Amino acid sequence: MVALDLDAPVRVSPSGTGVIDRTRAAVHGRGREAVVQLVVITVLYLTYRVGRMLAADEQTHALANARMLLTWEDRLQMPNEQALQSIFVKHEFLAVPANFYYATAHFAVAITALLWLWTFRPMYYRVTRNLMVALTAAALALHMLIPLAPPRMLPEYGFVDLAAKYGQSVYGPPDTDTLSNQFAAMPSLHVGWALLLSLGLIAATRTQWRWLLLLHPAVTTLVVVGTGNHYWFDAIIATALLAVATLLHPPVFERPGSMPEMHGNERI
């Protein structure tokens, strides 16, 4: 019977030590990168919030711009937002989920999508993050240059504040709300972010079902208009800004040796 010396030191081969060291370095590097990305997104969000608050005291100008926008939409024979909203107003079973979607999906989907991309598709995460920064910065500039009151503030046109009527409102009275700029309807970052994240996930995945992700920006557009928070034109401008940002972004995937990372199941 062979005696075992339990006090003897455990010896690891040089190759085994190298693997352990590389694993520790990789884990440490990913953890450091996660902190950096969290800081970047937090700074982006706080900058956006501060910028919106600085441009919040524009009620008279914002209401005038809103009425002018409705005039231009009418001249261009665009669909009437009030016609869509009337469907939600008449049916509480549509209004309540719409208010909930507006209040929660914007940030919940963004955090989930960015986290998944960062974990499994780092290259696509970086591109999506860069485009989100560019889109948000452009939107903030427009919010400050062209304050715009949302439809829910124009009851004389037949609009209704759906959240105030059925609950789950994310805004307080405009004259006492110091946490947000309610006169920043154009462009709609709800629509812009939804479209960007959906396209980023579609590009990063291979499953044939990935195109169903486009339902998110489609539903978001219907919700922001139906709840009285945005005009059709707000969604159009957000889409146009995203298109410009995409065209101006460096062609990352076309550089030699910079093929997109694919981790795990290629069919995801």
- Total domain modules: 1
Rg over C-alpha atoms, rounded to the nearest angstrom: 24 Å
Q: Poorly predicted ranges (pLDDT <50, ≥5 residues)?
A: 254-260, 262-267
Query: What is the count of helical runs?
Result: 9
Give the N-terminus to C-terminus distance in angstroms.
53 Å
Query: Please, what is the average pLDDT?
Result: 82
Give helix and strand order, one letter per element, not per position: HHHHHHHHH
Please summarize the sheet with the most strands: none
Extended strand count: 0
Q: Look at the helices and sheets and give the structural class.
A: mainly alpha
Instruction: Label the overall shape.
Output: globular
Amount of beta strand:
under 5%
- The helix content, as a percent range, equals 55-70%
Question: Any chance you could write out the topology, listing elements then pairs?
Answer:
Blueprint: H1 14-54, H2 59-75, H3 81-90, H4 92-120, H5 122-145, H6 162-166, H7 189-204, H8 215-226, H9 232-248
